[in-house]
Specification:
Subcellular location (chains A, B): Cytoplasm
CATH superfamily of the largest domain in chain A: SPOUT methyltransferase, trefoil knot domain
CATH topology of the largest domain in chain A: Alpha/beta knot
Strand order of the largest sheet of chain A: 8-7-6-10-9-11
Keywords (chains A, B): Cytoplasm, Methyltransferase, rRNA processing, S-adenosyl-L-methionine, Transferase
Pfam families (chains A, B): Methyltrans_RNA, PUA_4
Protein name (chains A, B): Ribosomal RNA small subunit methyltransferase E
Number of strands of chain A: 11
Radius of gyration of chain A: 20 Å
Distance between the termini of chain A: 32 Å
Strand content of chain A: 15-25%
Family (chains A, B): Belongs to the RNA methyltransferase RsmE family.
Oligomer: homodimer
């Protein structure tokens, strides 16, 4: 069933009117007719199953059939911060990271980042990534579309670190030294609702100076198992491990 | 440090001679000289740190400095079976799956697979995927290069199911129905050394008839969390969850 994200908050209504792009998609692309059902996802994270009751020149009218029952969002909000990697790896990180439950994505120029993007390029790139996140959120049945912020300096990034309850640093040297238990300890004790930032270096890794700065802001270096993961693979590991610990293990124990 | 996979088994020797492609890479590509160190990974999964003692016209001579200490391989052997997906998604599955620790990959034509590959095409594709697996194994510091087998019929695939100790079926309907604990139960109780097969459908999913066949062979349908994962993302989740449970949690508890 198709899934549409609306900008308004949910309030109980006899009828919902959908206009603009989702209208276009329902009527012109999917050629929906009265009786068809869709998911409507509201800005305040409520999602409902709704049935089309009528279609006008500019709006689709829908009535609520039921609330969507299942919780689709990770119990903690994990933001993935990536030192700008090469090529279109950020596209892959945002697409797969959205499917795997990330709350947001931050890009920043790390010391060893090869690419240099100016303001205009960053704005264009951010728009593209927001679209990728939106599509992946719809496809994976998310209740939230992750945010995307591409920063133009590492200083700005460091200033934002205080917004998080917990900072995890994926540090290759931790993996090489066989550090394996830090992430498990964090995920086993984290409180629901926590805002976690997970920082990943670009291909060349984070420099010891960068790791020191992030640690000074409260960051904890973590290994992600004994194998060396590429910069775009490491976030998938972290998000999957979080889901396994918080959504699968918690339920089965 | 560079990592080279050799076809011979490890036996203690005063000197190791490397010829052929790894010779070419050490001498011509990396321009190594006596005194440089590399990892040598032998066919029987022993890996050593070795130092170049001399270089001839056709061979690099090396002496063992020490055994590689850290265990890099998952304690269970997980084979990823993918119903042929579209485009080059299998490339991504093999590359990232190798980083994440898969023991092998099987491709098979599932009922809803759109692509139809004949014998010649399959042989070429398999060669390409073997090269991707090899490169990812070197890059991620694996001790084994995963196997790749592309099958030309689903019947052949089903005949191979008996080779495994345990079969996990990633089934979207399980996820939709909120099944969340099966995978956790399996990973918490699996014995070290087990051969696990994890089956993933193509974009269109597995049909109920296919799932029934796999279940008749002992397969257990599992959800992979509440979000709907794309066909190429689901194996990353499963392998990461296995590493988290068997390599991170096991150590920290």
């Amino acid at each position: 069933m198709q899934r549409y994200f609306l900008e308004e908050d949910y309030t109980a209504k006899e009828q919902y009117e959908v206009v603009g792009e989702p209208y276009h998609h329902m009527v012109r692309v999917m050629r929906m007719t009265p009786g068809n059902q869709v998911y409507l996802v509201f800005a305040n994270q409520v999602s409902i199953v709704a049935e089309i009751s009528g279609i006008t020149e500019s709006a689709v009218c829908l009535v609520e059939k039921e609330k969507e029952q299942q919780e689709k969002e990770l119990p903690v909000a994990i933001t993935i911060a990536s030192g700008y990697p090469k090529g279109d790896k950020l596209d892959l990180i945002v697409q797969k990271g959205t499917e795997l439950g990330a709350a947001g994505f931050i890009g920043f120029p790390a010391k060893t980042s090869v690419v240099k993007w100016d303001g205009k390029k960053l704005a264009k790139k951010q728009q593209r990534l927001e679209k990728i996140a939106q599509e992946a959120a719809e496809q994976s049945h998310r209740q939230v579309t992750p945010t995307v912020a591409l920063l133009d300096s590492e200083k700005t990034f460091i200033q934002q670190l205080t917004q998080f309850d917990m900072i995890v640093i994926a540090y290759e040297e931790s993996a090489k030294q066989g550090e394996v238990s830090q992430l498990a300890q964090i995920l086993q004790t984290v409180k629901a609702g926590s805002r976690i930032l997970a920082i990943f270096g670009p291909e060349g890794g984070l420099t010891p100076a960068e790791v020191e700065q992030f640690m000074a802001a409260g960051g904890q270096p973590c290994g992600l198992g004994p194998r060396i993961l590429r910069t775009e693979t490491a976030p998938f590991y972290l998000l999957s491990a979080a889901s396994y610990q918080l959504e699968l293990l918690k339920v089965s124990n």
